[in-house]
Amino acid sequence: MEKTAANLPEGFPFWDHLQPEQRDFLSAHARLRRFDAGKLIQGAEDACLGAIQVRKGVLRVFLLSEEGREITLFRLKKGDFCMLSASCMIDQITFDTHISVERDCELLVLGAPAFDRVVKENVYARCFMYELMAERFSAVMWVMQQILFARMDRRLASFLLAEYDRTGDPEIRMTHEGIAGQINSAREVVARMLKQFASEGWVEVRRGRVLLLDPGALRSLL
Question: Which listed site, 37, 98, 133, 206, has its alpha carbon 20 to 30 Å from 62?
Answer without folding.
Answer: 206
